[in-house]
Write a sequence for this structure.
């Protein structure tokens, strides 16, 4: 609650819980594509207490991994646990992160959502997490991803395919790239359009628009 009060529009998911190897199908697909690269760069956006970054480092030990988090308490846990020189953790609003680009893969898992939409059946208009905010953050991440890079998204209140940025991406097809989620999904106007949907979780960036 304190983090949300301080950062307002820059803060989305309120939960801080995570666990190791949470998305094995996605991590395996990422490994298959990036393993041939000498030093791939991966962004774990909304990394919570670092489990995703540490898991990715086991799949791709030669990768440079940047974990980004807006919650100061979570970031403190990441820094205290980290002993891997190929993993770095930064605050979402750090100047160093704002200028970073050229990532080969970006993971943004269970970030673009508000728990209240599920548990209290509130609408995005009530919580302030509008489609415009979602689309703005997607544009921000797109600027950091190389053409030919992979974008992984899951547990989002909005469909990535609805964004203008999404027009420059193609879905990736592999076991586990699509999942059925029993959770509300909203349209551009914040209207609840489904209580259960099939989510595509992996996309490949084409040449820049």
């Amino acid at each position: 609650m304190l983090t949300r009060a301080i950062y307002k529009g820059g803060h989305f998911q309120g939960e801080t819980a995570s666990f190791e190897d949470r998305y094995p199908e996605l991590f395996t697909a990422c490994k298959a594509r990036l393993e041939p690269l000498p030093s791939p760069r991966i962004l774990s956006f909304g990394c919570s207490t670092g489990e995703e970054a540490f898991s990715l480092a086991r799949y791709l030990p030669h990768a440079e991994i940047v974990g980004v988090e807006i919650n100061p308490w979570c970031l403190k846990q990441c820094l205290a646990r980290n002993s891997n020189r190929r993993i770095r953790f930064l605050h979402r609003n750090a100047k160093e992160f704002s200028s970073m680009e050229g990532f080969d893969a970006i993971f943004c898992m269970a970030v673009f959502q508000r728990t209240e939409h599920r548990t209290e059946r509130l609408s995005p208009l009530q919580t302030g997490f509008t489609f415009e905010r979602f689309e703005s953050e997607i544009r921000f991440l797109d600027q950091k991803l190389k053409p030919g890079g992979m974008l992984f998204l899951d547990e989002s209140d909005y469909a990535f395919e609805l964004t203008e940025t999404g027009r420059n991406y193609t879905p990736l097809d592999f076991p586990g790239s699509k999942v059925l989620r029993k959770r509300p999904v909203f349209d551009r106007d914040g209207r609840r359009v489904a209580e259960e949907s099939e989510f595509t979780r992996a996309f490949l960036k084409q040449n820049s628009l």
Notes: The CA atoms of residues 68 and 94 lie 9 Å apart. The mean pLDDT is 91.
